[in-house]
Amino acid sequence: EDQVTQSPEALRLQEGESSSLNCSYTVSGLRGLFWYRQDPGKGPEFLFTLYSAGEEKEKERLKATLTKKESFLHITAPKPEDSATYLCAVQAYTDKLIFGTGTRLQVFP
Amino acid sequence: GAVVSQHPSRVICKSGTSVKIECRSLDFQATTMFWYRQFPKKSLMLMATSNEGSKATYEQGVEKDKFLINHASLTLSTLTVTSAHPEDSSFYICSAEPSNTEAFFGQGTRLTVV
User: Fold this and answer.
1) Do residues A98 and A33 touch, judged by C-beta distance below 8 A?
2) What does the pLDDT look like over B35-54, one tens digit per residue?
3) pLDDT confidence of B98, banded at 50, 70, 90?
4) Residues A46, B1: contact at Cβ < 8 Å?
5) Per DSSP, what are the bridge partners of residue B73?
6) Which of A3, A18, A100, B75 registers the highest number of CB atoms within 10 A of its CB?
7) Distance CA A90, CA A30 (A)
8) Quick check: helix, strand or coil at residue B86?
9) Taking a C-beta distance cutoff of 8 angstroms, is the pair A53, A67 a contact?
10) What is the DSSP string of A59-72?
11) Do strands A62-66 and A70-75 pair parallel, antiparallel, or not at all (unpaired)?
12) Is B44's CB within 8 Å of A49's CB?
């Protein structure tokens, strides 16, 4: 069964304190792994797509990496405005997205 | 990125009434759109896949007579929650993929049934 597990469930960081979020997955035929940011009461906002192991993508303070079993979202020197829930999703050859439960990140000044 | 607009953002309705939620792709055509439901602090759960010009495909356990989906044009899909009950209260989100790659999501609709 296709499955996505994110950890930690919640993360509190001091401004400037770098950290990583984990997304472990099992899927029969990975088409892509996606990272989204979701603010309270809003729909998910697209961040990255990763397609193959070893791939990396960066956007401002965020960097996403992918292995055959997991993905990491590294946050470098976070700011309070980075506070949000970060969702990971995988897409198998069925085209459906399977989401993890997310990591709620809080960054304090 | 592509823009998907969802309306309304919040709705309160009485038990037994029906509510329609619209999902529009503003700058691209979408033959397929997806409808999700999200419970507090939970993951997005796919409810159904909306197909332009044909019947929607529902996920296991989703009542198709309760959640009516219509995809009448290449830019509009609607979800109607029929005979709503308090247990239908939730956050509903739609998505579409402009080039069959990444999905872009609407703003979500908070439905409260009283």
Assistant:
1) no
2) 999 988 788 999 999 998 88
3) confident
4) yes
5) B76
6) A100
7) 7
8) helix
9) yes
10) ETTEEEEE-SSEEE
11) antiparallel
12) no
